Amino acid sequence: MAAVTVPTRPAPFRRPTAEHGLVSWLTTVDHKRIGILYGVTAFAFFIIGGVEALLIRAQLTAPNGRILDAETYNQVFTMHGLTMIFFVVMPLSAAFFNYMVPLLIGARDVAFPRLNAFSYWVFLAGGLFLYSSFFLGGAPNCGWFCYEPLGVAEIGNNNSFYALGLQIAGLGSLVASVNFIVTIVNLRAPGMSLMRMPVFVWMTLVVSFLLLFSLPILAIGLFQLAFDRLFATNFFNVAAGGDPVLWQHMFWLFGHPEVYVLVLPAMGIVSEVLPVFSRKPLFGYPAIVFAGVAIAFIGFGVWAHHMFAVGLGPVANSAFAISTMVIAVPTGIKIFNWLGTMWGGSIRLQTPMLFSIGFVTMFVIGGLSGVTHAVVPSDYQQTDTYYIVAHFHYVLFGGAIFGLFSGIYYWWPKFTGHLYSERLGQVHFWLMLIGFNLTFGPMHILGLQGMPRRIYQWPPGMGWELWNAVSTVGAFLIAASILVFMANAVRSMARGERAEEDPWDGRTLEWSIPSPPPHYNFAEIPTVRSRDDLWHRKYAEDESGRPVTVVAGAAHPEEGDGEHDEVHIDMPNPSYWPIVAAAGLPLIGYGLIYHWVFIPVGVLLLLAGLYGWKIEPVEEHVEGASD
Amino acid sequence: MTAAVLALGAFLFVACGQDLPQNTFRAEGPNAELQKDLFFLAFWIAVFIFVLVEGLIVFAAIRFRARRREEAPKQVHGNTRLEIVWTVIPALLLLFIGVPTIGGIFTLAAQPQGDVLNVNVIAHQWWWEFQYPDQKIVTANELHIPVGRPVLLSMESKETPGGQEQFGLTPADAVIHSLWVPRLSGTQDIIPGRVTHLTLQAERPGTYFGQCKEFCGISHANMRFRVIAQTAKDFTGWVSAQQAEAAEPPPGTDAAEGAELFAQFPGGSCVACHAIDPGGEGASVGPNLTHFGSRTTFGAGLFPNDAEHLERWLRDPGRMKAGVPEGAKMPNYNLSNDHIQALVAYLQSLK
């Protein structure tokens, strides 16, 4: 039982104790709840970004589309890109980092639980701040890449929201990256050496380092942009000796590692799902891990392949062509090792597996079209055409989104404690696969036939009629598939069958605890003896290398004796302060754009949050607070 | 597999075969040829890998499907020899693509040799100015070039202040643009404060469509142009016609009234922004109109150059082209019908 102590500090500094209701969510520091917050918020942004995508497709279905005017179209395509990258794929990956990493490494929470809550609230603040621009005169209209000097030159506050909104959201990701690096380095269960970690944890570690090193570059670029816009500095002003190409270097030095930030988490998920549904260990685990690390390293040396047409000169273009081709090698290693994992397995084509196979097959297409961009002379034709739009959607939708859906279905029983309808899951998969290929496949052809990106209208007589129409039909099929997913999710929550601990015959630690996990995760921190520890507790191998079931509990006789159920486990207490501190940031943003009076208010909130954070008690022992 | 092959066949058929204005596969110049050939080098290797990998994945998913009462699979953890093979083979394939890639980069960057025609390109929001320094002519949105002769484009992004301020308009912004004529050559960006170069060459006479390819603001989609490639003889004829002074309309005609209005109309003036001089002497806020009547299109390749479209343009330019009234650019002067008729007559007389 918990010790009952009288709080010794004044009331404002007591820690919140709500376990249910709104306050409990606003003050939570539980990594699982924060993971759910990230996931639900990212899905809401996914719907918004998806509606923007449908508007774009509707506008471009036929020549001289008139659904949107030029200015609205430019805002919509800018926000579609920003939303999908910064407010969908990144936070959806963060949802998995949050929920899964502690479970996969046998920990009870992340290293800095309040900092984790702060990351989420800052991300949300950034998203709401950016979207508030729609109601305050117009959203950013300079593209997600916001090339200068256009971003500075456009009148109105649109692109100030870009500079400050991304700054805020980026801060959340930066803080989170530190948290996950510390968590993974320090909080692994006894026996879990680095080379016993699940690949998803490895990819989280790699992505966290990518963010740690790349986000500051974007932050500096955004500060320069904000200063040019708000205080008339001249970082990008040619007339005063500035250089617009500086922005491109800063942006892509961040922007290319960012591509791997978006896709490596999905690769991690696929590396968990394929072995479970093939009933075989991951083929070439060390090679897959090292390939992931290699991709991250080389990913910092390829940024100028986004700038082949800038005119950096033949030597620079040759160097970046080579580095871009080199990065295809570790990517290929991953693909072949995944194939090796499936080969000779006992494959169950259930929804998570379908999405993982979908990931691999679609990502191969995106990777191969990527190699054609590395052929620089050919890229002079393709850059800024729909061929590029096709390419990166095969990587980020066919890749990242398929991989993330694989993870959603795979861990859904663990998150919710319910099973979902396998039939609806399969309908979702096939609808999305067909819709996806109809939407983005034809864009390869459109690009090669000379259709540029970022045009709000195209004239008749260009021969682009058929494939634009097909693409729009595909986009609405994708939308329909998302509706099927939502129906499945609602149905599962409402009346889905209860999920057992281990519905897939899994290999990793999260399947050794109840679904959904208790708030302390593990009653006793497990001792890890091998990679795929849970699998080896369940199965031994006979002489021919085939698994044979181990008698329950035989492998780890010290566990599962039920004696620990009554033991109280101290968990981090909730806190008011992360959300208070985060709330200060958008106010500072509005202050910079509109009127200085908001700035001291925002700074005070931020400081109050940080000081409250520092001086609140570590624990609040309240009678009955223990489970 | 059959589906993949069919899709590929369809892809090649529709992508390569069609005679479309901006089809990169219908190359008509050495740059576009080289770019197309290198694309196909990478493409066929990609097709080989695509068929191999996707085939193996689909095969594995079907062949190794779980069956009832089957033995559990052998727990294979890896195979070093195999893994080395599938590291080395892709690396060799990339080397095979990489060598000609670098060759191509240097070929395209080389200074053109021989009888080179120099053209200075000034990219504006959202139209193109073409200056022929040796011929002393300035034109807009239609680039005439002789066939078989390399044309060295020296390109800048500049906006000329002046003109607009007297009407309370803000000047346009010099931003990044990119010049692209798919059937002649891939793109080259045009960046404020720099001069970038691109060599164009057309093998056959014809009209080739071009378009700005770097997002440059609200009317980026409307920044188009034509390259008109002519035989040496036709090109020389065009040059001398462009070098002539602008036509003087006979007194008493609509066109003559238009010429007066062009210099000064109630509430404004055309010459404040548009030059009437073959060498471009005068304002260069908007396109040089000296031989406007000889152009096939106007508004940066948007509209056929006929009376109907000109009338609509003069009545309200902003309705015809996004962004034109907001920024720099051409305001609605609320011209009377008579004035519009006269100005159209004058513009059409400027052959």
Radius of gyration of chain B, taken over Cα atoms and rounded to an integer in Å: 27 Å
Average pLDDT of chain A works out at 92
The Rg value of chain A, from CA coordinates, equals 25 Å
Distance between the termini of chain A: 9 Å
Beta-strand fraction estimate of chain A:
under 5%
Class computed from helices, strands and strand pairing of chain A: mainly alpha
This entry's quaternary arrangement is heterodimer
SSE order of chain B, one letter for each helix or strand: HHHEEEEEEEEEEHHEEHHH
Strand content of chain B: 15-25%
Q: What is the 3D form of chain B? A: elongated
Topology:
The complex is a heterodimer of chains A (627) and B (351).
Chain A: H1 21-26, H2 31-60, H3 70-105, H4 113-132, H5 150-153, H6 158-186, H7 199-231, H8 244-278, H9 285-299, H10 314-342, H11 351-374, H12 376-382, H13 386-416, H14 422-448, H15 465-495, H16 533-538, E1 539-541, E2 547-549, H17 577-593, H18 598-615
Antiparallel strand pairs in A: 1-2
Chain B: H1 2-17, H2 30-63, H3 80-109, E1 117-124, E2 127-132, E3 137-140, E4 142-146, E5 151-157, E6 177-181, E7 185-190, E8 196-200, E9 206-212, E10 224-230, H4 232-243, H5 254-263, E11 297-298, E12 303-304, H6 307-315, H7 317-320, H8 337-349
Parallel strand pairs in B: 1-5, 4-10
Antiparallel strand pairs in B: 1-2, 2-3, 5-8, 6-7, 6-9, 9-10, 11-12
Helix pairs in contact in B: 2-3, 5-8, 6-8
